[in-house]
């Protein structure tokens, strides 16, 4: 799995933030400036496999990343399953900082 390889350091990535359970990296193909991916270090295929116990740490990590970005306007997007646009089969959440006129449209 490509994100497991990133977590293990086998594939390079720009790490924005990391803690015991998650890494936050810059998306290699950013949809907007500062596009981040929050990735659990353990492999879960998707949101439905993600254990309840990790939810709080997950959201704390998201908040830490958003605060480090220093933005107030952003979208959080989780593509779950192929038909919803999930390409990488290792659960991840997109953080998309937003600016007026940045051209990003959800679903586009
Ligand atoms: P998905 O469509 O699965 O929700 O999103 C996968 C995201 O991972 C895409 O936005 C894509 O640009 C990003 N991505 C795929 N491979 C890599 C990689 O090797 N490194 C980084 N940094 N991002 C990747
Ligand atoms: Zn994985």
Descriptive key words:
108 residues, alpha+beta, 2 helices, 5 strands, globular, binds guanosine-5'-monophosphate, binds zinc ion
> What is the averaged pLDDT score?
96
Report helical residue fraction: 10-25%
Question: How many helix segments?
Answer: 2
- Got a strand count? 5
Main beta sheet strand tally, sense and closure = 5 strands, antiparallel
Structural class from helices and strands? alpha+beta
- Overall form: globular
Report on this model:
With 108 residues, the protein is of the alpha+beta class. The chain contains two helices and five strands. Strands 1-2-3-5-4 form a five-stranded antiparallel β-sheet, covered by helices on one side. The mean pLDDT is 96. The structure holds guanosine-5'-monophosphate (5GP) and zinc ion. The site of guanosine-5'-monophosphate has 14 residues, from strand 2.
Could you give the topology of this structure?
Elements: H1 2-7, E1 15-18, E2 22-26, E3 36-40, H2 55-69, E4 74-77, E5 93-97
Antiparallel strand pairs: 1-2, 2-3, 3-5, 4-5
Bound molecules: guanosine-5'-monophosphate (5GP) and zinc ion.
Guanosine-5'-monophosphate is lined by residues 2, 11, 13, 25-29, 37, 79, 85-88.
Condensed summary:
With 108 residues, this protein is α+β, with helices and mostly antiparallel strands. The chain is built from two helices and five strands.
